[in-house]
Specification:
Chain A: This is Molybdopterin-dependent oxidoreductase. The complex is a heterodimer of chains A (367) and B (155). Chain A has 367 residues and is α+β, with helices and mostly antiparallel strands. Chain A is built from 12 helices and 10 strands. Chain B is mostly helical. Among the domains of chain B are: 37 residues; 56 residues. Classes of the chains: A alpha+beta (367), B mainly alpha (155). At the A-B interface, helix 3, helix 4, helix 5 and helix 7 of A face helix 1, helix 2, helix 3 and helix 4 of B.
Chain lengths: 367, 155
Amino acid sequence: MAASVRGTAITARVGVALGVAIAVCLVTGLISHLIQHPQPWFDWPTRPVWLYRFTQGLHVASGIVAIPLVVVKLWSVWPKLFDRPVIGGPVRALERMSILVLVASVLFQLSTGLLNIAQWYVFGFFFTTAHYAMAYVAFGAVVVHIGVKLPVIRRALGEPLDDVARSGSLGPSRRTVLRGTWLAVGLATLVTAGQTVPLLRRVSVLAPRTGEGPQGVPVNRTAVAAGVLGSARSADYRLTVINGDRAQEFTVDELRAMPQATHRLPIACVEGWSAEGQWSGVVLAHLVALVGASPDSDVRMISLEPPGPYSRTVLPARHARDDMTLVALDLNGEPLDLDHGYPCRLIAPSRPGVLQTKWLSRIEVVP
Amino acid sequence: MTAARVLLVVAGVAAGLYGGVLLWDTSSTVLVRIAVWALVGVVVHDFVFAPLCAAAGVAWRTVIPANWRSAVAVAALCSVVLVILAIPVYGRPGARPDNPTVLDRDYPAGLWISIALVWACVPAYHLLVRLLPVGQDQVVDRERADDVERQPPSR
């Protein structure tokens, strides 16, 4: 009986949902990649300020949603694994091979993504490059699979769902399996999405973050991990702003003496968590104007953190000239916590948290 | 449709190859790790997880009355999903002493309470179905995509 509940009627329907989830995951992932690896043809807007929070939250949520969908979809086709002949002719061998690539790459993406949001790096390769490259493999395998199965999918979607239930068998019908799948999708979202949807915080019992942290905002890279405990608190601290041969240095007190702006902006991590804070500080455009920078210049933000992949970022001109982009000194009414980037950090609207450079040391106008 | 299918397959192969090109510079050690990670997922699913599910499916048919099976199956699926989501957080393997804002929940409690709630829904659902004046099949048969209850007066 259970064997008759399995079958293309379920595979195709769950497959459509899975295809949508994978497409959303791919597009939002590519957006995040392009923001972090700018291309001349790609422009990322500064409004709405929560746009990156939304796309990256969606990236992680769609990946999590894909987990129950994959479980059910693989369940629905599993007996086919043992179909005879095992290999058969070249066409069949190719089809089987493409399905191996499909399942392996999709499981790879979902498992590495899930481990990454919990910061559990057991796999022994660099997450971002492997996850990015494998995204094309998984996407390509999905597209090939749709191409191969298109007639089957069309036929299965056209068939009524109720065959089994109508024939009088007891136990789960196909409709039950589908409803159960949507229920599991909802549950998976509910128990994890609270790390970016504050309303769900209390029920998201498996979210890697509660959204709590110093000054009400979580931290990804701590001052200890960045090795800036001494330099950030040093009495000799100066923020240097440079444009060609023009340079100015500012102490923290001098920065505080300048006109301050306050904005509510989210900090949104690539790992899918996000939190809103009230940030106060000097408008970046005002600061770089003091050294004669053009509003069309990109700006390089350099951290006190010793050189590494995340110790510096280039802020595109569009974000650099935005009046909501701050060199923040305060978070939620208090001087920045050391883990939030004391003495000052970048906070710009609609940017990945990893590019909101903390413990700023130098701001260079890119010629 | 044939043209569309050929186009899909060609585009898919091209995308997959591009993914391979991106890994071109990767050292062979790392490539092997990536391949192993990908294949282990398949093997674990196809030859451990799926057979266990099938065995459980055979076993439960002898134990669980037919009219309970739907709810039990859905609860089992939900439990599996919860367990998968709990794997990377349960023992907090990624926790680091310098950052208490990551993995800052009681995950064992969260997992077991959520699983308990899922299973508590099984008898609750069963009771609800029995108390409802109409049979489940009738309800299902009546429902359509355009089925909207409590329509406003047409006046």
